[in-house]
């Protein structure tokens, strides 16, 4: 059961306030991306972000995780006490089987990731990967080494 997601700590977006994000920086990112996270509470302890409260869907949950996790200095996002509306279990447990993430490696593009993960029809999957990460990912070519991307389910 997944209740934490790991990130590459020494890569990612640096906040305007300095090298390490504050809780305010992380909240600002969620507000900027308009992820409907008004019922989400976050706390930052060292390099770990704890998310609690409630989100409307698995998609918003996963986008919230990558929005705060892809900051420089963040190593872990814990969703143990975050729930999804209409589900009784904590999001981390309910998300078991829904979570698919990919860490960008040297030389990766969305097309090469699509070819590695899905094989057939990389152009179709390239677009689906972009859409799965929008608005956190602003353009298909704006990925970086160590970034964690959300992957769409090949069955959907």
From TrEMBL:
LysM domain segment(s): 100-151
Pfam families according to UniProt: LysM (PF01476)
Superkingdom, natural source: Bacteria
SUPFAM superfamilies membership: LysM domain
InterPro entries: Bact_Kbp, LysM, LysM_dom_sf
PANTHER family: PHAGE-LIKE ELEMENT PBSX PROTEIN XKDP (PTHR34700:SF4), POTASSIUM BINDING PROTEIN KBP (PTHR34700)
Protein name (database record): Phospholipid-binding protein
Lineage of producing organism: Bacteria, Pseudomonadati, Pseudomonadota, Alphaproteobacteria, Hyphomicrobiales
